[in-house]
Amino acid sequence: MSDDVRVLPGVPGPRRGPGWARRDPIDELAADWDESVAAAVHPDEIAALLESDGLSDDQIRERYGVENSFALAEELYARTPRRHPEPDGEPPDPWRTGLLGCLLRGLVFALPGFAYVLGDPLLAGPHEALGLPAGTRTLLAGALCGWAWNQGLAHRAYAWLGLGDRPAARRCLLVGAPVGMLLGTLVALAVAGPGRPAAVAFAAGQSCYFGASGVLLVMGREKTLLAALLPMTAGGLLTLAHPLPAPARLVLLLGSLVAVAVLGLLEAAPVLTAPRRWRAALPRLAAHAKSLSPARWWPSVRAAAPPVAGPRPLASLPYAVFGLASGVLVVYAALGDILAGAGHGALAAPAAVALTLSMGPAEWLLYRFRGGSLAALRTSDTPRRFRRTTARVLARCLTAYLAGLLALTLAVTAPWPHAPAPSAARLASLLALGVVLWTGLLLQSFGAVLGATAVCCAASVAQTLALLTHAGSPDTVALAVYASAAGAQVALVRVRLGRVTAHR
Asked: What is the pTM of this model?
């Protein structure tokens, strides 16, 4: 027997289903185009596919009973669940960066500390109030001014680099760095008063270093800066083992300072040697001297594109204030006991050195958070799941930073002469300050600088008032202030960075 169904004459064939039992033509079309429709991110994408397939609005009205291709696209989009295909292989991470480069930046942040080792005899004199070494207030005033100014200047230069205008970034640094040097020197002079020329001179050199090194760091010349600091670093290490005479110290200090200043100037100086456009225009000026139209003197003026709008100067102000507030918090972490009359200098330096060195791993972990949040955007299908994934990434990065900061603190304190082992309260306050600094940098990287600046300013004001009024022991006050600020900034991070739109 044959499997074919034959229709014999006079015998009716198989009955067809009624019209109401037929499948919806839109469902049939959705099934045929399932893969393309499921991967669409908007109905307009499906409308484009319909039009490219040659379906006219008349055909769509006749076959599917809807007005046009856009209406049909919306129906298909609503009836088909979203299924976005995963890319083949591991997707590229634009935020991936090398750990070694970030560690190098942390190292060049810390190496200038050897300048204070070499310059200690040059600042010899009677102790200041609260038992501070001679010249401490002068140097701190100049340093805080430098931190604030260079933080704002670096933001403005990076903004120009983000616009793709590297010459404008160089011009910004070429003008801004000398102004910051002058301001830092004037502030140090005002704090020092008469009779302390050595402290003022050292503070002036400190301000010059801040300005020149800021130029090199913004332009990505960390290795160049490291090479310029090597003689001073070698001299500082040698001084720790065998004190050098004052002339040798002065030569090492001035040598590294001059090298950094010259390298910074050369990095920003190409804008001074750029070709002048008016030289090329001189022949045209002579040929069209009788005309009063600048467009005829220089035809390129008519076709020139409008200049790119640069960053607003006031946009960098919150970053400068954040630099000042965070600098005050670091000073209190290093000198809080001494300023309160309850400690000595051996407590101060290890905390400051550990915080400075930790800025290298901190920067790398900022990149890791950006990469992790980008991966969360790809893998999360709901806003709630994205918030959870981002919170886990934040917890991992923050834990890694705190572990590194703790290890650096213990490693720096162990060989430090006459430095006692840090107490549990001191370690806890230092780690809380680390949370404040790292989350502040994280918020800055997302443009949410106002919240971080407000928290750091409030913390620095609270700690200053506690110091002036002698409210509690330094460790207790520091732990309370830093823990409160850390909690506030972690909450800011969760609220601000838990939104998908913050990661555009």
From this structure: 0.75
